[in-house]
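Weekly modeling sync, notes
Attendees: S.R. (lead), two postdocs, one rotation student

Agenda item 3: backlog of single-chain predictions. S.R. asked that every request posted to the team notebook include the full sequence so nobody has to chase files. The rotation student volunteered to paste the first one in as an example of the format we agreed on. Action items at the bottom.

Example entry:
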Amino acid sequence: MSLKCVYLGLGSNIGDRLLYLKEVVLFLEKSSSIVVTQASKVYENRAIGISKGEDFLNAVLEVYTSFSAQELINFTQRIEDSMGRTRTNCWENRTIDIDILYYEGVYLDSKKLTIPHVNIFKRDFVLKPLCDLNPELRINKK
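Predicted structure, as returned to the notebook:
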């Protein structure tokens, strides 16, 4: 399989937020199926819809991968689990959140994964760092 360009959104609002973002990059770089090519600057954003939540640190990574979209979501969820992520509902404090925002050539709408990310156009904390990395990227809804 050839390498595909993928953009991953990262977020953390518990503990050493910056360290968690950096650790994701290290986990990804250990994989022989992923090459991290760019990282946006880190942005601080309010925790919306989360009670008693600290502000989030958010960033976007550009990676190239030989993983399929399903393999990639499984891999990123294993990273989240290993970093102490708990899953109770979508509006929760979290050590780390890794979202597949865009996967080159893939449009998917399943129970586990939607590509492009279902809320990509509604989140400035995703769009700003994504545009920093690739202002020419055009994402179509299918």
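Discussion: group reviewed the output briefly. The chain has a mean pLDDT of 87.
Action items: rotation student to repeat for the remaining queue; S.R. to check formatting next week.
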